[in-house]
Amino acid sequence: xxxxxxxxxxxxxxAAFLGGCSSSPATSEGGAASTEAPSSQAETTKTAETxxxxxxxxDPAFYEGNTIIGQSSWIGFAPLYLAEQKGFFKDHGADxxxxxxxxxxxSKSALVAKRIQGMSTTxxxxxxxxxxxxxxxxxxxxxxSAGGDGLIAKSDLKDVKSLAGHxxxxxxxxxxxxxxxxxxxxxxxxxxxxxxxVNMSSGDAGAAFIAGEVDAAVTWxxxxxxxxxxxxxxxxxxxxxxxxxxxxxxxxxxxxxxxYPGTVKAIISGWYDAxxxxxxxxxxxxKIMAQYTGNDSGDSLKAAMESxxxxxxEEKNLSYFQTEIFDIAxxxxxxxxxxxxxxxxxxSKEMITGDYLExxx
Length: 361
Known about the structure:
11 strands; D-Maltodextrin-Binding Protein, domain 2; globular; 5-stranded mixed β-sheet; disordered N terminus
């Protein structure tokens, strides 16, 4: 199993880097204070220096390129799309586009090639990316799974320890479900070798469990609800009991951040504005976000977001970035080393920064 995982990860990252290196950047990453062309080399140099100084002071208006954030259609990322559609990024001086990437390999390739400047995914995945050599830093926590992920099992299996020797279906190729299950096992002093892991996607894992093909499964809705409704089956534990473990976060390219810190601050403030808008204008907010997530309606999206996850506002981010996010990143890194997916543990203090978290006024 370990050998398979290591090979899988190596192939995935190789594809990501090859795909990135073969592509040319699609956006400009610089801009002058004026659209009028300087009349001399000296003026050009002076303008560039002025732009850098303004960027260093946190003024996003001096970045004239279109900043792109890549992410999937996961509902926890939807407020960033809302911020784009409502102009909240522009309110703080940044031109930002949310670009859909359902494949993590594609988004990683785009970020390596600098076709995008940031990406949203789980903290544990950012750790993998950093360990692979990507020059990124986590700057904002977006959401934590609060009931959207779960471990379902036959009702005679009462706790994680009782899974020893039993078949457990889950996606063993990485990702949040795999990381979360490893976290549960570690808490009990167990490893994946203590169970009979059956590799399949989270959706297929839920279906296989309901069909009686395995003893337990790590999955999400609607399979959690189906397990509750089926005699002899139950939800052993869900992610509401482990807040702060499965966390989605935004990471940005370090070179970009150093050049344009004001844009990063504007993105984060736009996220906060979007969360405020969800509270003050829920009907319009969920209608817009449903277009991004593919939900049938704003009402269905609202129900899912309120029952499956918690969004991180400014207060929660400031608290989470004190110690907990570093603990989760360190735990993820150690796990990936133990699994043979990475060779060394990246320094969490070098890949996580809370310098941009305070809202722009």
